[in-house]
Amino acid sequence: MLQTAILVLNQNYEPLNICNARRAVVLLQRDKTETIEEGGKIIQTVMSIVSIPSVIRMVYFVKRPRPITRLSRREVFNRDGYKCQYCGCANRDLTLNHVIPRSRGGTHSWENLTSACKDCNHSKDERTPNEARMRLYSKPHRPHSSLINFLHCTSNITLHGVFSSLELTWKIRLHYK
Questions:
Q1: Same domain, yes or no, for 78 and 116?
Q2: DSSP 148
Q3: Domain check: are 81 and 119 in the same one?
């Protein structure tokens, strides 16, 4: 019960950390946090009954460095949800595709790289998506610095494994699908 995972939000409601219930109760007792979502679980002590929250928020702002996601094949595939951005197929046998081909001055950057299955990458060849009459499902972009990316990049744990059992309130707060 005391090892239950609790989502900690910064004062501005940005995801900050995940702590256990014991730490959350201590932070609440010291008036450093406030309860945002009740977890529905309680702990009965000798002196009182304590409700275990699901989400807490710091009452003061905690400055933290923004994590930087390095450009790599795995991170591009992760950003794109391991799906081809041209046909939408979920395939583990993906390739990196330069939207504007490097032979035409395209850069090797977040904004020009996307995931593509081998068939789509081959049919696009050295052309732009417009020339190949192919449409991108989403525009390539640098990943947002958030708790999800931070945990994924620093611990080498897949997102699906960590967040598949998240409570609905967490998923809403983290904008996780």
A1: yes
A2: H
A3: yes
Asked if the structure places residue 43 within a domain, the reply is: yes
Q: Is 37 helix (H, G, I), strand (E, B) or coil?
A: strand
User: Which DSSP string corresponds to 57-95?
Assistant: EESS----PPP-PPP-HHHHHHHTTTB-TTT--B-SSEE
Strands (E) in the chain, as ranges, are 5-9, 15-20, 33-44, 49-58, 94-98, 113-117
Question: Residue length, the chain?
Answer: 177
pLDDT tens profile 119-166: 999 999 999 999 999 999 999 999 876 655 555 544 444 444 444 445
| pLDDT tens, position by position, 107-120 | 999 999 999 999 99
Q: Is residue 77 part of a domain?
A: yes
Check: pTM over 0.70? Answer yes or no: no
Structural domain containing residue 100: 73-124
The total number of structural domains in the chain stands at 2
Cα separation, 173 vs 166, in Å, equals 11
